[in-house]
Amino acid sequence: MIPLIVAVLPWGILVGAYGVESGLSPVETQALSLVVFAGTSQLVAIGMLQAGAGVASILLTTLLITARHLLYSMAMRNQVKNLPLRWRTALGFLLTDELFVNSPQTQTFDKWYALGGGLSFYIAWNIATLAGIIAGASIPNLTTIGLDFAVVATFVAILIPMIKSASVFICVGVAMAISIYCEVQGIQAGLLIAIISGMISGYLIYSMKRKEL
Asked: Which among 68, 122, 155, 184 would be 20 to 30 A from 38, CA to CA?
């Protein structure tokens, strides 16, 4: 988890600085990281709050952004279904993209490893948020110096090792191409379209290869 924690620290700093810059109090900004603990959703929610969006719109948008966690939980179901509710609740809250990638899906699931990995990321994220709050109050235009590249770098580091088959490669390629096209064309729902298109394309390739076997 340590390399991913280091890579995501600028992202946490960005969240803290952006929250203060957008008009949230330091306590409110820190509370987002303590309670929500979802980087992309926090950035989007802060932006929507700044734009005056309603609670329903913010909740719906963040639900769509974090919908991938439903897939994560389905993939990990067999590993955690026999754990007590308190464990499943705690691990569910701490589940991130990074923790999912680093938690074996086909080997013996170690709940203590998952708890340690999740907690380490949670603590580092909140420390980074606090650093962003402090820095954002004293360093002008902190959010414009390119800290958001940490978001891209983190997900690239997670994604590349997972491309081990043709179906995953096609899924990634289609999603990337469509997301770029939608961004250029200014299509608001581009990210959602790219995700669905990539998943369908990958599944079709996977199904075709299974039929050949």
From this structure: 184
